[in-house]
Amino acid sequence: MPNSDVQVTNGSPPRIDTSVAHEARVFDYWLGGKDNYPADRTLGDAIATHIPAIRDIARANRAFLGRATRHLVDAAGVDQFLDIGTGMPSAGNTHEIAQRVDPSARVVYVDNDPVVLAHARALMASHPRGKTAFMQADLNDPRSILDNATLTGTLDLDRPIAIMLVAIMMYLRDSDDPHGIIRTLLNAAPSGSYLVITHPTADFDERVMARVVATIEQAGITFRPRTRAETESLFAGTDIIEPGVVPVTTWRPDSCDHVDPDPAWFWAGIGRKP
After folding, report:
1. Any domain includes 195
2. Residue 156 sits in which domain range?
3. Cα(129)–Cα(102) distance, rounded to whole angstroms?
4. Among 22, 67, 196, 259, which is most buried by a count of CB atoms within 10 Å?
5. pLDDT score of 96 more than 60
6. Residue 196 pLDDT more than 90?
């Protein structure tokens, strides 16, 4: 049901270059979406030659997003979400999951892809008791997110929020200071807020992941897998809740889930700011 308070912030008209692959559209392709182009499909297929289960892995990340969101609303009482690197609209978006449990939940989506921005209105069908907003901004500049009027007009930063960084941190090199970026986001959030991360890793097979990294970077996309210890370090300043940083398929799976951790290729976890 549409919400009259839906907001889209886009600074300037989007310039879309569909001849260049974009990570959000590659994920959309793996998830079976339609908002992708030949360059995205070419890269997605190239990665699949190294990891044939990549579509299952993309779905596993999406399923984790759902489980994490339900847990935060139902068990932790969180009703505000900052979803950064949200990607293309698809079934089971953060606001849809959260508002099934708490119709008053509020969500701000952030992405840097103008194609995602162009599809924002399709994504934002909020429950009338809640609120959903979207902004085009870049995680590399967290202040551009935190200081945006869309954020401050949608979320109350005096109350706990959940910062969702699902399948996004791998696009930051160590020189981009990912720890400092997360620290800036957490510093703006009050006690009782949560940090949600999934992150690809070479821990399952270093040689295969090295080929994946080469394929992705040849397409002009930064890609930095991290070990379990490196992923855990991204949660600095929070207390990681049970079961810790684990394969994405094994983080509190639903009773009907088929759990096979080996091909997961992603670590997942949630931390709480004390």
Report:
1. yes
2. 56-204+226-272
3. 9
4. 22
5. yes
6. yes
**Burial of 20: CB neighbours in 10 Å, binned 0-12, 13-18, 19+:** middle
Strands 239-240 and 266-272: antiparallel
CATH number for the domain spanning 199: value is 3.40.50.150
Within-domain flag for 258: yes
Q: How far is CA 110 from CA 7, 57, 150, 221, in A?
A: 12, 22, 10, 19
Indicate the number of domains in the chain.
1
Give the global pTM. 0.91
Kindly report, residue by residue over 32-68, the tens digit of the pLDDT.
Answer: 988 899 999 999 999 999 999 999 999 999 999 999 9
Q: For 54-114, give the DSSP string.
A: HHHHHHHHHHHHHHHHHHHHHTT---EEEEES--S--SS-HHHHHHHH-TT-EEEEEE--H
Side chain identity, residue 100: R
Residue 93 token pair: 């978006």
